[in-house]
Design goal:
3 domains, 43% helix, Rossmann fold, six-stranded parallel sheet, 14 strands, alpha/beta, single chain, 446 residues
């Protein structure tokens, strides 16, 4: 069986490598020639644990191929997955120009029946636009070639994408023909052998499922952040509250961690796009509008604590920052809360020394040399007035507080991910500010 995936970004490359791993002959297509050349040499453009090995192994076995010419990949092809970007437009809606460009190119070059599958996160109604764009090109050619359109949203977590794809909690597919359903059943058969469910539904429902899932998770995060901020005011502890409500089987414990807001390529974009979809149809999604407001405010909460602690004076102060990416195990800096904190601290005249295991190169691409990048965590701390923890990388969880206290100018930690225990802070005489719990102040800030 031969399939083609258009787009070698996060979704396209992970999907292509995983399909190839099951034995499907998979070609990943991208218009970026240099990117394709690097992939053919085993150079992976994104950081995702295990992806480099999967790509190289399947490329060497000729199950995974790379190309810049979609027209050459449609012969003897059963299905084409569209996995190109859908960046937010100026009004917050998803920009479909790349998706529709692929659909038109398919219509220009297809020679036999195909299932065209939207894998990108796209608004409700996109499948029909894809169908129209492809059919218009066939009409221009004066040919009648049957095809179907389907929706197959991805539910990958960055940092655990390979496992998510190979062992999915569910596979959601929207179709409107038996023929398309049979093709997709065949493609996904290897993933169903261990009992993972495949759920077929109509196409609009599949398109909505992706947005609804991400919006629900974003809602849980913003809800907990809102509760955490109130906890600080009334003297409650968000850790205890989380345990209390998370033990309720109707609620569960996942995505109940307070912090400095969500980021990444999915939640911010998808919440905005769903809000825009609602407005387009004359319906205001008030809950999601609040979710978005809370998240934007939450990215500034840690900065507010810092500016208050230093009584408004950060000029010339060295601030250490551990973690830059929006979450651990990825180099993704899109909508990362650290960028908001960095910008606000720089505006106040602070000097920032940062360390992240994998995303410093991406941060430098975005903000250049406005901050100092360090080779290891403790290098940031020499003579630092404070430490900010913005990403909960594993290597930050058990630091040597004794060494930290000796090399820092002032012993204060602003923990945006609540990874340190109160007792450790007390035992090592650190001032400590987390999210949603009582601060510890043992020294005088002068």
């Amino acid at each position: 069986m031969n399939i083609t995936i258009v787009g070698t970004g996060y979704v396209g490359l992970v999907s292509g490598a995983c399909f190839a791993e099951t034995g499907i002959s998979t070609t990943c297509v991208d218009i970026d020639t240099s990117k394709i050349e690097r992939l053919q040499k085993g150079i992976i453009p994104i950081f995702e644990p295990g992806l480099d090995t999967l790509v190289v192994q399947n490329f060497q076995k000729k199950r995974l191929l790379f190309s810049t010419k979609l027209s050459e990949c449609l012969t003897n092809c059963s299905a084409v997955f569209i996995a190109v970007g859908t960046p937010p437009d100026e009004d917050g809606s998803a920009d479909l120009k790349y998706v529709l460009a692929v659909a038109r190119e398919i219509g220009q070059h297809m020679t036999d029946y195909l299932v065209i599958i939207t894998k990108s996160t796209v608004p409700i109604g996109t499948a029909e636009k894809v169908r129209t764009a492809c059919q218009e090109e066939l009409d221009k050619r004066g040919v009648s070639i049957p095809f179907d359109v389907a929706s197959n949203p991805e539910f990958l977590k960055e940092g655990a994408a390979i496992d998510d794809f190979m062992k999915p909690e569910r596979i959601v597919i929207g179709v409107d023909s038996d023929r398309a359903e049979q093709v997709l059943r065949k493609i996904y058969k290897p993933f169903l052998l261990n009992g993972h469910p495949i759920i077929f539904m109509n196409i609009p429902s599949a398109e909505m499922t992706k947005y609804a899932a991400n919006s629900m998770l974003a809602t849980r995060i913003s809800f907990m952040n809102d509760i955490a901020n109130l906890c600080e005011i009334v003297g409650a502890d968000i850790h205890m509250v989380r345990k209390g409500i998370g033990s309720d089987s109707r609620i569960g414990s996942k995505f109940l961690y307070a912090g400095i807001g969500y980021g990444g390529s999915c939640f911010p974009k998808d919440v905005k796009a769903l809000i825009k979809t609602g407005k387009k149809h004359g319906y205001d999604l008030h809950v999601l509008e609040a979710v978005e407001r809370v998240n934007e405010r939450q990215k500034e909460v840690l900065y507010d604590k810092i500016i208050s602690y230093f009584e408004g004076n950060l000029v010339g102060k060295k601030i250490a920052l551990w973690g830059l990416s929006f979450k651990p195990n990825t180099d993704d800096m899109r909508e990362a809360p650290s960028l908001v904190i960095i910008q606000k601290l720089l505006e106040q005249g602070a000097n920032i020394y940062a360390y992240d295991p994998v995303s410093m190169h991406e941060t430098k691409r975005i903000i250049g040399d406005t901050i100092t990048y360090c080779n290891e965590p403790y290098e940031c701390l020499n003579n630092a007035e404070a430490l900010i923890v913005a990403t909960e990388w594993q290597e930050f969880r058990m630091p040597n507080f004794e060494i930290m206290g000796k090399i820092m100018k002032r012993k204060v930690i602003f923990d945006g991910r609540n990874i340190y225990e109160t007792q450790d802070m007390l035992d090592n005489s650190f001032d400590y500010f987390g999210i949603g719990k009582k601060p510890i102040i043992q020294t005088s800030c002068v």
